[in-house]
């Protein structure tokens, strides 16, 4: 009847529930007026995406996603929003030309993405995926990808020192 | 993990999972009821008081009466509050506290989610409760509540770092983050438990865990003498009860986690004592940790807010990093 092969396993239901949650969160993040609400719906999307990662068998990525994005990034965002003064109830007047253009570009983007995803091949890896992919990620990080890994660490350290320097400068009286 | 969703969905399977979850909920509720009673008694004795002793025999029904009072109380929402978030926050605080219990292995044969990143799952989900506390503080539209929420966010983010790093040593020894594997590695005599080779990690873990629980001496988010009650100052009735419930469920979870990570889980201290079931050993160690948490609360004064961040970043974090280095050296030299 449908060109899809539907077999109602738990995975099938979980995928649809999570997909709907992720999209709902994303749409709410765009349409809600208050900034705190927006940040919260973004967190909701992050959690749903983590659920999708679990369905794909990438538990490590999933929980790191929750730990970093939901745990740290969202809280920092909410923190920043609360600390700064802002008038979030104000609504901008609609700009019809801009909105039409945006809609056209959005449709184009959707078309391109849809076409690309439909025409992309998903090759099955020759060897079976390791059952314990956390160990595998760790091994690869410290053997094959050791140099990029160290470079990213240096980058993070630089950003960290930069943040400290910026904070220090504000402390001094002008 | 895959086996959980490969089976076709049936009402029977769904009902089984629901039943297991409800049973666990019942266990947790009973634990919370008597943990509160036990806490009040222990603190009472430490302060030369009696503790609750009027409601029911020995005061055993005191918590039941308290909860009943909270449930029949008028449910107030401040007029200027953000109503949707105000209502959402208590549920958002409780849900992760209960879901983290899914990965706790109580014994080798008891059903639980055998996740290969069990510890990470715990830490990741407990971070969601922080969002709930911040949201509760913000949605109340109250200065004290907002301050409590802010403190909570800063504290939770800072102490999460040493908490995770302190367990890295355990993960290195086990070569796994799976909680079951971590317990299995600690079989044998009690000096095989992680608490001895990982004594620095254990110390950092306990301090960071008490802080994550928002309990004295780290209860700054709800410091009653400075912030009235912190983030839940505007909450009453069953919403307030939900915050309390989440807090005590986290005590349950962290006591389980400490038992598993550092005290050998269901293993007996001597293999000769293996005839006593593992669940009894688990319960015994668990009770010991819960008691220690109450003991700490009765003993230590609250940290000052300006000392709080210093402790996390200048003391706990270097210690946790040193512990990782020492563990690596130990594995390299001693094998």
Rough outline of chain B? globular
* DSSP helical segment count of chain A: 6
Largest chain-chain contact?
A-B, 38 and 38 residues
Q: Could you give the distance between the termini of chain A?
A: 73 Å
Shape of chain A: extended
Find the count of extended strands of chain A (DSSP E, 2+ residues). 0
Straight-line N-to-C gap of chain B = 32 Å
Descriptive terms for the model:
heterodimer; A: 174 residues; Four Helix Bundle (Hemerythrin (Met), subunit A); 2 domains; 6 helices; B: mainly alpha
Description of the structure:
The complex is a heterodimer of chains A (174) and B (335). With 174 residues, chain A is mostly helical. Chain A has helices spanning 10-31, 35-55, 59-83, 96-119, 133-142, 146-171. Chain A folds into two domains: 1-85, Up-down Bundle (Four Helix Bundle (Hemerythrin (Met), subunit A)); 128-174. Chain A contains six helices and no strands. The longest helix of chain A is centred in the C-terminal third of the chain and has 26 residues, at 146-171. Chain B is mainly alpha-helical. Chain B is built from twelve helices and no strands. Classes of the chains: A mainly alpha (174), B mainly alpha (335). The A-B interface holds A 7-14, 34, 36-37, 40, 43, 47, 50, 54-55, 57, 59-60, 63-64, 66-67, 70-72, 74-76, 78-79, 82-83, 131-132, 134-135 and B 1-2, 4-9, 13, 82, 84-85, 115-117, 120-121, 123-125, 127-128, 130-131, 134-135, 138, 146, 149-150, 153-154, 156-157, 160, 175-177.
What's the structural blueprint in terms of helices and strands?
The complex is a heterodimer of chains A (174) and B (335).
Chain A: H1 10-31, H2 35-55, H3 59-83, H4 96-119, H5 133-142, H6 146-171
Helix pairs in contact in A: 1-2, 2-3
Chain B: H1 3-6, H2 11-46, H3 62-72, H4 83-99, H5 118-139, H6 143-174, H7 179-185, H8 199-212, H9 224-227, H10 237-262, H11 278-299, H12 305-334
